[in-house]
Amino acid sequence: MSTHVAVLMGGWSSEREVSLVSGAACAKALQQAGYSVTTVDIQRDMGTLLTRLYPKPDVIFNALHGPYGEDGCMQGFLNIINIPYTHSGVMASAIAMDKPMAKRLFEQVGIPCAKHMMAKRDEVLAGDVMPRPYVIKPTNEGSSVGVKIVLEGDNEGPFTHDDWPYGEDVMVEQFIPGRELTVAVMGDRGALGVTEICTKHKFYDYDAKYVDGGSYHVVPADVPADITAKVKKMAELAHETLGCRGVSRADFRYDDEKGELYILEVNTQPGMTPTSLVPEQAAAADISFPKLVAWMVEEAQCDN
Predict the structure, then answer these.
(1) Is 116-174 a domain of CATH 2.30.30?
(2) Which of 38, 235, 256, 296 is deepest in the core (most CB within 10 A)?
(3) C-alpha angle 4/273/61, rounded to 5°?
(4) 13 classed as catalytic
């Protein structure tokens, strides 16, 4: 009898649509790899979820994105009902999603971060809390949801009283000029490669990520060999520092004029469509999409 994998997808975060695409792609690839697959569109009803997960699958493939799906909440639930799941556990998921806390840990192990601070929503509305140019971010969203850049000469603030639904806390970060690099880490296999993300948008925002033609990827990135080696080591260290499992993806800014690298964040559950960054790097390393998701299933576990 083949291993039964339940793919969790959808959810109710701002990244629901992205999750549905990732989940459908992973389910198809898992079937191609020989697994018995059930897809579960998650709603905010744990009783219904328990019913959908009976009889118990052998493994959960967690294709959720955003709050509740990748911030430790779903991971804790799966620990309680004792079904092994893909990706990171409770602690790594929670810390990675909490951008200020993750940066504290990165700085402690010597991974450079852009200058940053926490501010209150009303402080940002009142005027600049940091010299321009700077970036504002929600503290716990993914897919660049809510991220905005404030440049010299901008006449308007980053948001108004009515368009910041992400709570009272705002992360403010120095804008680093240069190029966007990303590195997938595949457990003990380490960094798969380095991709440069190119876009005509002001930065790699939600539309650049998910709208056709919004960006293109250069794999491997056309950067000096020493930068390739350095950013891969930084991604592996970030993965290890947070205690990640399975696959993660670390995003960086590379100031090519100064030769400096800065980590932006670690994604513990990166996008998983066949054209997403992680499968793209895996393919460049001669790992097909079905082989990638099969490896993730075989590595699945609960905490402890």
Answers:
(1) no
(2) 235
(3) 25
(4) no
